[in-house]
Task: inverse folding
């Protein structure tokens, strides 16, 4: 097995591999299984020709990686962002494998990405990129093969285009090929809020553990996209005090707490800049907000926010990872030494893929559940997974992150052994 330290702290694939390695070693995973689970099962790069509105022909680069399909079809989002790399998609695909295993839902792990800046493309251009990307991957996708979902820079409209393109190719409407769709096209109640709701359920479990009260719990949330804004809304509604908020352009810290519905209206209703919110607070950068005092810090934006350089500045008791990979692997030890209770990404943000699973089940049955039913089942899954991870950490004397990885790797390795290696 390769050894730490990492060559490049900011390469998320290396971070993912280092964590896998530490957990696999602790688990005593046999060498062959280690090799099999360390690398992606399949990966593809597609070059997507797209006619821009200007009449100029551009070629975009897209990826799809299947990390594992041992426990079920590949599952994972598609990211549209200017800085997407194959290594990043590989890391995110492996995190999906572990996340689905932690939540014990019958999926493997996959991820996709297209290098593009969705903020600079028209709706028509985005639709053409999405449709051509889907057409190139027709043989990869399918309800039994690989089921995409939204991620950074994509949304339910993107999923509707993928569903339509796939359906046109296979000549029948196949709603279960993607999740995170609009409700009237086979989407699930509660899917949009699901990741934020899972974050809240995890925070509730942590509070119960430490006998803390919501009303006296200060929360900082970095990121105001789908995950961050939904988490802020639900936590605020539940009685938590949201004292720090941030979007990509900047952050605000206010000891008195924010009126989150007003803030959501400011950003989403009036399309104004978050850091110019009138009932504001102290302005700072989006990264700086993570290091202000609070009981809970929720990084819910992008990777590599907490690093070996800045982790010592955290002033929180609980770190709940709404984003994928917000801490580098090299920051883990520092966070650990500070005694911070970490709810690792593959547990904390598993609410999204859990309701994706419910959506897939509903599509395949053609029978749809109420929002109440979805939320109750989600609560069961996250609470159960949380307790399993914490129990595992106590039994094996490891931190929550290592415990979550060990639990997940054990489940996938077990399924792999039961299936056997086809040769
Ligand atoms: N993109 C989300 C994640 O990283 C959701 C994936 C899904 O629902 O398949 O967990």
Result:
């Amino acid at each position: 097995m390769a050894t730490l330290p990492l060559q490049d702290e900011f390469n998320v694939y290396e971070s993912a591999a280092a964590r896998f390695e530490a957990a696999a070693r602790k688990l005593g995973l046999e060498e062959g299984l280690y090799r099999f689970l360390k690398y992606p099962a399949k990966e593809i790069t597609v070059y997507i020709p797209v006619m821009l509105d200007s009449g100029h022909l551009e070629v975009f680069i897209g990826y799809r990686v299947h990390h594992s399909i041992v426990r079920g079809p590949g599952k994972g989002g598609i990211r549209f962002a200017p800085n997407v790399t194959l290594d990043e998609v590989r890391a995110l695909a492996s995190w999906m494998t572990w996340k689905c295993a932690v939540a014990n839902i019958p999926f493997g792990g996959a991820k996709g990405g297209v290098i593009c800046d969705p903020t600079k493309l028209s709706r028509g251009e985005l639709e053409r990129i999405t449709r051509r990307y889907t057409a190139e991957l027709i043989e990869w996708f399918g309800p039994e093969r690989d089921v995409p979902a939204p991620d950074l820079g994509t949304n339910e409209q993107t999923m509707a285009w993928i569903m339509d393109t796939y359906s046109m190719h296979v000549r029948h409407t196949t709603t279960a090929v993607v999740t995170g769709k609009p409700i009237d096209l086979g989407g699930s109640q509660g899917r949009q809020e699901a990741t934020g709701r899972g974050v809240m359920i995890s925070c509730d479990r942590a509070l119960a553990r430490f006998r803390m009260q919501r009303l006296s719990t200060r929360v900082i949330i970095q990121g105001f996209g789908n995950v961050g804004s939904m988490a802020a809304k639900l936590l605020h509604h539940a009685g938590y005090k949201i004292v720090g908020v941030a979007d990509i352009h900047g952050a605000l810290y206010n000891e008195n707490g924010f009126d989150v519905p007003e803030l959501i209206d400011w950003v989403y209703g009036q399309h104004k800049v978050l850091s110019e919110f009138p009932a504001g607070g102290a302005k700072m950068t989006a990264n700086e907000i993570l290091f202000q005092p609070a009981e809970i810090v929720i990084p819910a934006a992008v990777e590599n926010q907490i690093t070996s350089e800045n982790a010592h500045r955290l002033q929180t008791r609980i770190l709940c990872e709404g984003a994928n990979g917000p801490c580098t692997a090299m920051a883990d030890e520092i966070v650990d030494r500070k005694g911070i209770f970490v709810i690792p990404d593959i547990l904390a943000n598993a609410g999204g893929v859990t309701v994706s699973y419910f959506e897939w089940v509903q599509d395949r049955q053609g029978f749809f559940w109420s929002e109440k039913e979805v939320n109750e089942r989600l609560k069961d899954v996250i609470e159960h997974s949380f307790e399993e991870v914490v129990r595992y950490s106590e039994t094996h004397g490891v931190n929550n992150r290592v415990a979550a990885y060990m639990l997940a790797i054990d489940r996938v390795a077990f399924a792999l052994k039961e299936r056997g290696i086809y040769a």
